[in-house]
Amino acid sequence: MTGVARVTLARNLAIAAAAGVGLWVLTSTVSAYANVQIATMAYYFVAVAGLTVLTGQNGQVSLGHGALMAVGAYATAKIGEAVTWPLAAVLAAAALLTAIAGLLVGAAAARLRGPYLAGATLALAVGLPALATRFSDFLGASNGLTVAPPIPPASLGATFPLERWQAWIACAGALIAYVLLANLMRSGYGRAFRAVRDDEIAAQLAGYHVARTQVVAFVVSAACAGLAGGLLAVVTSVAAPGAFTLTLSVALLTGVILGGLGSLAGAVWGAAALVLLPSWSDDLSGALSLSSNVQANLALAFYGLVLIAVILVAPHGLQGALGKAIGRMWDQRRRGRAPRKEEEE
Amino acid sequence: MQRFVDLTLNGIANGAIYAAAALSLVLIWRATRILNFAQAGMLMFTTFIAWTVIDHGVSYWLGFLVALASGLAMGALVERTIVRRVEGAPPLNAIIVTLGILVLLQALAGMLWGSTPRSFPPAFSIRGYEIGGHAVLFSRFDLFTVLVVAAVMAGLVALFSWTSLGLRMRASAFEPEVARLLGVRVGDMFTVGWALASLVGSLAGVLVAPSVFVSPNSFDAILVFGFTAAVIGGLDSPSGAIVGGGLLGLALSYVSGYAGSETVTLGALAILVATLMVRPAGLFAGPRERRV
Amino acid sequence: MLKVEGLHAGYGPVSALEGVSFEIRRGSVTAVLGANGAGKTTLLRTISGLVRARSGRVLLDGEDVVGEPVDRLVRLGMAHVPEGRGVITQLTVEENLRLGGLWRTGRGRDRLPGVYDLFPRLQERRAAAASTLSGGERQMLAIGRALMARPRLLLLDEPSLGLAPQLVAQIMRVLRDLSSDTGLTVLLVEQNARAALSVADHGIVLNVGRVVAQDAPARLAANDQLRHAYLGF
After folding, report:
1. Is this model's pTM higher than 0.80 or not?
2. Strand order of the sheet with strand C14-24?
3. Which residue from A145, A271, A336, B48 has the fewest beta carbons nearer than 10 Å?
4. A288 touching B, CB under 8 A?
5. What are the residue ranges spanned by the domains of chain B?
6. Are C21 and C210 in contact (CB under 8 A)?
7. In angstroms, rounded to a whole number, what is the distance separating the alpha carbons of residues C165 and C169?
């Protein structure tokens, strides 16, 4: 490992460690319900972070990552059923399986650009859940598969709350994902992603293998989606098609946009928004005594409005927002202060 | 053999609907280089409006016309207010905006009508015609579907080929800057293009509604089928959309018949990917090679 | 009839016109000359409204038209034949021509006979797809199309581009005749300075966005230094 890479890894580990400590304190002090929210934010972070690397760093727009999360969730459920591995191994295997799925999709998608890629991944998002009905014996049809809740180890005590344990698992996954992605973005691969995003022909002339780079980015983001799906299954105890509709894929993209294309720190905000927005809109509906139909759809309406508003407010494109995100990261680097994830929680 | 004939006829009827959905995407793509992801939401919304009208006891045909008229209006409105800002901007912007509109429309529909699927009446009987003493998988409604889509297509062909408006629209789509220099109000032409595209989309919506039932998400698949058909024919080609729709309708009918109806969307995905790998510009690739 | 005052224009951070000023009389043929990148095309695009001027005025018969939408300028009688001719290849010859006259009349056929008289070759090929036309035919089509709207001012961007000398001379003659017969004002951007000066009443030389000389063609051609430096002959 080069000197620079070692420094990067050390710094990212330090950030992760600091964040880990912060989260340990946080989860130990808040209610069970809040812990579920933290767990949800954590696995959304994993998915949004992976997608923001694909879309922001590599320029590929995918509407199919909800479907890839489904792959991870179902894989976790099936593998967990079949073997008695520790949870970490099951999740790793699910992520690996999803990465392989990502390899297939990514290879097919490597030649696609812009609207064609979006359309093809949209087809994936709409079509994949139907598999659960087709193979209803194996995949449990519309009720899905149940996932046994993870039991906290005996060393933590008999009264250790399940929700806190689930939050710890999810946060651990999020921290691992953060370290790996942060390292990747600073590495040669990260440079390749950005080079190909900015100017394919120039990148090719500079010696980058464009298709291979696209596929690698896709596989990485798929692995993240798979892990996120697995964590979702563990936290919610179920893997069902209803959780992985087109809406989820659009929500992930909204999270990416909100956080800023290509920004890992932004993925934290994006993930938080995906959890808090529905929660706040529920509170709002309650306060205004809105009908149940309105309540059920208010968060979704907000997502739509956010997506439209972001474009109308920044008409010169999200490249501007990306530029600002990069500018922010550069500034902090120059000032010698690393962005601390814990601060931004 | 009987089954094959049944599936073929069924495929033709479905193909007409996919062709309409494809055409609505192609019209917008040709004019403004935007893939209108919101189309599924727009046609869902207009179908809901038609359903409401019919549900209040009004005749089916009035509901049908209301769907088409609201499609026309909605297309013009969406283009004028929102899409206008992303014409000419990087493709990512248009993708995000049309997704936002899709999601917003689905949310609004959910608020107004709830998520319980509603049944939508077909224009005519859906019982298969009796041929040689037994029922074929092709009904009066299917025949109506094919005929009305063909009629609308013919109308559009006439509009584009023979009218001054059509000439201005084609010029605006092919060479917008040159058209502006010739005094064409290109922006208005785009609005008309969106309005017509949305009208065609609404037609697809009311024709497919009886079989998918009307709910905020039940038209997502049509977007996939329409896009696939459009890609098969070539995104720049209206005639390609029709041929693509027909071919896809047949192909998916066989998939559904022989492999199970749940695999239909995945079948479309497989066909889409295959087309994009083998012949990305579509069957009717025009003189302008598009880099996919 | 056209007066340009202190025109500044550009693309993003690049400035292409830096304070261009000149005036042209009704019924005259004016040639704008200069090397590649001098700003000639930008000048036409700014006058016709495709590019928005950063500062300065463009007075069409006394009315400042900076910032007006292109279709308004067209309706005020300005026609612009762009760089590359702008022939719409997916349409037929007659459709291209009709398009030129559409904003004036319903079907756009009004001036067809007149244009066909001027360019009989176009009448022969009226139903052909414009993609099948040769360079010279396309130039005729582009000019004919512009004339369909009965313009007062005709802007042409490099009409001689890619044409054989004989055709160039023919096109220049046509422009000269149009101007003297119908009183059409012509503003012509050309890299082929010699051809342009042979029919022009007035010449303007641009270099990196500035006017470096304005004069009668004979005097411009007689200035050896100028000719060598900016006109290429």
Report:
1. yes
2. C14-24, C2-11, C55-60, C63-64
3. A336
4. no
5. 2-113+136-278
6. no
7. 6
Torsion, Cα of A47, A51, A52, A57 (10° steps): 140
pLDDT-based confidence at residue C108 (cuts at 50, 70, 90): low
CA distances to A331, C108, C109, C151 from C97, in Å: 58, 8, 8, 14
Supply the DSSP symbol for B214.
Answer: B
CA distance A174 to B43: 39
How does strand C202-207 pair with strand C29-33? parallel
Rounded (to 5) percent helix, strand, coil in chain C:
40, 25, 35
Q: Identify the DSSP state of B118.
A: B
Whether B285 and chain A come into contact, CB under 8 Å, resolves to no
**Partner A contacted by B220 (CB < 8 A):** yes
Residues B63, B54: contact at Cβ < 8 Å? yes
Spatial distance between the Cα atoms of B215 and B94, rounded to a whole number of angstroms = 25
Tokens describing residue C158: 């490099």
Q: Supply the pLDDT for residue A322.
A: 52
Nearest chain A CA: its distance from B141 CA (Å): 27
Rounded distance, CA C204 to CA B10, Å?
Answer: 70
B246-251's contacts with Cβ under 8 Å and 24+ in sequence apart are: B246/B12, B246/B15, B246/B16, B246/B18, B246/B19, B247/B15, B248/B15, B248/B18, B249/B11, B249/B12, B249/B13, B249/B14, B249/B15, B249/B16, B249/B17, B249/B18, B249/B19, B250/B8, B250/B11, B250/B12, B250/B15, B251/B11
Span B28-49, pLDDT tens digits: 998 888 999 999 999 999 999 9
What is the spatial distance between Cα B241 and Cα B114, in angstroms, rounded to a whole number? 33
Domain range B2-113+136-278, its CATH number among 3.30.70, 1.10.3470, 3.40.50, 1.10.750: 1.10.3470
Extract the tokens encoding B178.
């040159």
* Interacting residues of B269 by C-beta distance below 8 A, sequence separation 6+: A120, A123, A124, A127, B224, B228
Q: Dump pLDDT digits (tens) for A61-119.
A: 899 999 999 999 999 998 888 888 888 899 999 999 999 999 988 888 887 887 888 88
Distance of CA C51 to the CA centre of its chain: 15
Q: Which residue has the tokens 């902090």?
A: A332
Q: Work out the minimum CA distance from A148 to partner chain B, whole angstroms.
A: 28
- Hunting for tokens 């490099």 — which residue is that? C158
pLDDT averaged over every residue in chain C: 88
pLDDT one-digit tens code per residue, B155-211:
998 999 889 999 999 999 899 999 999 999 999 999 999 999 999 999 999 999 998
C-alpha radius of gyration, chain B, whole number: 19
Supply φ then ψ for residue B101, to 5 degrees: -65, -40
Amino acid residing at A156 = L
Confidence at residue A339, expressed as pLDDT on a 0 to 100 scale: 41
Decide the pairing of beta strands A238-239 and A145-146.
antiparallel
Are A and B close enough to touch, i.e. 3+ CB pairs under 8 angstroms?
yes
CB pairs under 8 A between B and C: 66
Tens-digit pLDDT profile for residues A150-194: 888 777 777 788 888 888 889 999 999 999 999 888 888 888 888
How many whole angstroms separate alpha carbon B284 and alpha carbon B287? 9
B171 touches chain C (CB under 8 A): yes
Mean pLDDT, rounded, for A298-317? 81
- Cα–Cα dist A224/B48, whole Å: 38
Can you list the alpha helix ranges (DSSP code H) found in chain B? 2-32, 39-55, 60-81, 91-113, 140-162, 164-174, 176-181, 186-212, 220-233, 238-259, 264-278
* C100 interaction partners in chain B (CB closer than 8 Å): 182
Instruction: ipTM value, please give it.
Output: 0.90
B224 to A126: CB separation less than 8 angstroms, yes or no: yes
φ, ψ of residue C186 to 5 degrees: the values are: -120, 130
Q: Which residue of chain B is at minimal alpha-carbon distance from A115?
A: B35
